Amino acid sequence: MVRAAVAYKLKGEAGLQSVPDPCGKGPFAFQRFVFQGEDRGFQLTSTYVATKGPVKMIFVEKDGPAITVLGPRAGQAVTP
Asked: What's the pLDDT score for residue 56?
């Protein structure tokens, strides 16, 4: 996923499409990540579904409240 994220940042959509999801057929699913009404970055999701849910990773592009970027709590606020 990190390779796909870097390819996206360097070459846009074409870069994202050039890195296949090793557990699927084609690239990772892409969507913008909005937290508390503000666009904070983007999220990549694999077609692979682990025991605790889909495998996804968030790539933060803008400062803001702390969020979990990997695992079953990805996209949720970090709680102390």
From this structure: 94
